[in-house]
Amino acid sequence: MIEFIISGLVLGFMGSFHCLGMCGPIVIALPLPGNSWTSRVTGSILYNLGRTVTYALMGVIFGLLGAGLHLAGFQRWVSIGTGALMILAIVIPAFTGKRVQFGINLQITSAIQGTFRKLLYRRSMSSLFFIGLLNGLLPCGLVYVALAAALAGGSLLNGILFMTAFGLATGPMLFLLSIAGNIITQPVRSFINKIIPFIVVLMGLLFILRGLDLGIKFISPNQERLQLNPAKEEKKHNCCTTAIFQKTTDKQG
After folding, report:
1. Which phi and psi angles does 216 have, rounded to 5°?
2. What is the pLDDT of residue 102?
3. Coil, strand or helix: which one is 104?
4. Cβ contact 131:26 at 8 Å
5. CA–CA separation, 95 vs 93, rounded Å?
6. How does DSSP assign 22-33, residue by residue?
7. Which pLDDT tens digit goes with each residue over 56-80?
8. How far apart are CA 34 and CA 52, in angstroms?
9. Residue 2: is it exposed, middle or buried by C-beta count within 10 angstroms (0-12/13-18/19+)?
10. Rounded to 5 degrees, what are φ and ψ at 220?
C-alpha cells in the first residue's frame, strides 16, 4: 500500500513539470472571480481539487478492474505486462522518433473541450472546480501511465491511493504557476522533462519485478504469502476453539 502512495507521489511531482507545459495555458486562463490574493489561492485550490477528484474516480474504475484480474489469477501477468508497456512507451519513441499514439474517441474529446470553453467564460468558484474535473479527462500520456499503474495495483484501495497521490502531487507546481506566474524557468523544466522518461522506465521495471514473484521484500514480494487462505484460517480458528473448550471442560470436571 505504502509503495503505491510513494510511487504515485513521485510520478505526480516529477510529472508536474510536464504539466506546466501542457496545462499551463489553462491555469493562466482560469476565470478567477477577482484579482485578490484570496481569490487566486481559492480558485487554484478548487481547480486542482477538481483534477484530483477526477483522477481518484479513475482510480476507482481501474482499481476495480485490477481487483477483478487479481481474483481471476492474472495479477502477476498484468503487473509484468503493465511494466513492459511503460518501458516500450519510452523506448519505441527514443529509437523511432515517433510518439506512441493512443486511440481516443475524438467525439468525446471534442465534447469535453466544448464544455471546457463554456466554463472558461464563467467567472465563479464552482466553474473552476468543474474545469479541474474536465481537465482530468483530457488525453495525457502521463495520466495513461498512472492508470496503468493503478490497474497493476490489483485492488480498489491501491487504485484509489495511487491516483489520488498522483493528482495531489501534480498540484503544487500548477498552484505556484497560478499564484506567481512562470516561476519555474524553461531550462529547469527542460531538465526535469528529460528525467521523467527514466522515472517511467524505473517504475516499469519495478512492476515487472513485482509480477515475477521473486520473494524480495517491498520490491517483489511472494504473492502466496500476501494472500489469505480462508481454509487454513478456519481450520486454525476451529483448533483454537476446541482447545479452549477442552480446557474449560477439564476445569469444570
Report:
1. -90, 120
2. 53
3. coil
4. yes
5. 5
6. HTHHHHHT---S
7. 999 999 999 999 988 887 777 888 8
8. 24
9. exposed
10. -140, 70
Say if residue 116 is exposed, middle or buried (CB neighbours under 10 Å; 0-12, 13-18, 19+).
middle
Cβ-Cβ contacts under 8 Å for 165 (sequence gap 6 or more): 4, 5, 6, 7, 8, 9, 12
Q: Is pLDDT at 177 greater than 90 in this prediction? A: no
Mean pLDDT throughout 204-231?
A: 63
Q: Is 136 helix (H, G, I), strand (E, B) or coil?
A: coil
* 213: DSSP letter: T
Cα(15)–Cα(194) distance, integer angstroms: 11
Q: Which residue has the cell 481471476?
A: 72
Residues 86 and 207: beta-carbon distance below 8 Å: yes
What is the structure's pLDDT at 50? 93
- Number of helices followed by number of strands (H, E) in the chain: 11, 0
**Angle separating helix axes 141-152 and 75-96, nearest 10 degrees:** 160
Give the 3-state secondary structure of residue 91.
helix
Using CA atoms, how far apart are residues 127 and 116, in angstroms rounded to an integer? 10
Residue 208: strand pairing partners: none
